[in-house]
């Protein structure tokens, strides 16, 4: 991930699931920790190993959002929002067999027992009116999200395929490009703008996860949210090769 700084709220409440059990656990994590630190915490929650686990993020519609592949990146640099599900894949079957051999007993709670306990994360959040239990904060977030969606819709009206543009993503250098795609994608919810950068400062060739949205040379393609794209009469940037050997 290129952007390694936290851009949203400091903490996020998520649901933890694994590839071996149907049980879910609610957890709250600081977005300033690295993916490696998160895996260490997930070891305690899931019984997996930070060295071998794969961590994926799904939205509330159970659609894959991203995979946490960069151990050095901050989790806040990934699009992880409130209520999303962090799914851990690991060699749980082998670990379960080892547990059974040594007769390791699991401590499990029924849903009702969990609700009745006062020392759970959910009870803590409810008691302190945090996360989704903070009605005022949730209303504020809903209002901000609605305003952002309205601004995005207005910006989309100005963006058309083949238009010249300037891309300004927070935490990244401003880049000039040509719009090549506008609309929905399979790798993330919402509207996205596919661009062909003037210089090889992108992440793809117009395709993501096996789906092609437009054609361009490798490292020249990228996808950004509409609010970061400004259409205008931007001349094409030229590479300065005078100082290169």
From TrEMBL:
Q: Which GO terms describe its biological process?
A: cytoplasmic microtubule organization; post-chaperonin tubulin folding pathway; tubulin complex assembly
Pfam short name (any one): Ubiquitin_2
Localization terms from the record = Cytoplasm
Question: A GO CC term?
Answer: cell cortex
- The yes or no answer to whether the keyword Transmembrane helix is present is no
Q: Which InterPro entries match?
A: CAP-Gly_dom_sf (IPR036859), CAP-Gly_domain (IPR000938), TBCB_Ubl (IPR045172), Ubiquitin-like_dom (IPR000626), Ubiquitin-like_domsf (IPR029071)
Keyword Repeat among UniProt keywords? no
Cite the entry's keywords alphabetically.
Chaperone, Cytoplasm
Q: Per its record, what are the GO molecular function terms?
A: alpha-tubulin binding; microtubule plus-end binding
Q: What does the similarity note say?
A: Belongs to the TBCB family.
Q: What is this protein called?
A: Uncharacterized protein
Q: Which organism is this entry from?
A: Apolygus lucorum
């Amino acid at each position: 991930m290129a952007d390694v700084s936290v851009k949203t709220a400091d903490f996020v409440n998520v649901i933890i699931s694994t590839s071996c059990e149907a049980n879910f656990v609610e957890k709250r994590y600081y977005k300033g920790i690295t993916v490696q630190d998160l895996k260490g915490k997930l070891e305690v929650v899931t019984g997996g190993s930070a060295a071998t686990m794969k961590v994926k993020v799904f939205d509330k519609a159970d659609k894959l959002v991203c995979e946490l592949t960069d151990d050095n990146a901050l989790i806040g640099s990934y699009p992880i929002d409130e209520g999303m599900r962090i799914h851990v894949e690991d060699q749980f079957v082998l670990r379960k067999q080892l547990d059974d051999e040594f007769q390791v007993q699991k401590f499990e709670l029924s849903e009702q027992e969990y609700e009745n306990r006062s020392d759970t994360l959910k009870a803590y959040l409810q008691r302190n009116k945090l996360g989704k239990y903070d009605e005022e904060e949730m209303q504020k977030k809903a209002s901000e999200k609605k305003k952002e969606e309205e601004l995005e819709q207005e910006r989309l009206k100005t963006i058309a395929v083949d238009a010249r543009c300037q891309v300004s993503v927070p935490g990244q250098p401003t880049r000039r490009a040509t719009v090549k795609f506008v609309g929905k994608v399979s790798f993330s919810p919402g509207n996205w703008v596919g661009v062909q950068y003037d210089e090889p400062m992108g992440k793809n060739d117009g395709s993501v996860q096996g789906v092609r949205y437009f054609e361009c040379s490798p490292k020249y393609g990228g996808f950004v949210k509409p609010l970061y794209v400004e259409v205008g009469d931007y001349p094409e940037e030229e590479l300065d090769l005078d100082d290169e050997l």
